[in-house]
Amino acid sequence: MDNTKELTFRINAPLNEKELSDLFISSGIKRPSEDLERLKKMIDHADITITAWENDQLIGIARAITDYCYCCY
Are 17 and 36 in contact (CB under 8 A)? Predict the structure, then answer.
């Protein structure tokens, strides 16, 4: 049996709100993890996302809002 884990990072990769919800719930972070409509807006309105994946499972995310010349939050 192959237990190989492949870790990859993706920039602006397609992501759905259910994957984000599952990540927030498993991490224990205080976010509106049950509000899928809000999570979809959080994904759709982020200028940049960097996600971490273990095989095909989302295991981390960084989201940013930026003006692309000076500020990035």
Answer: yes
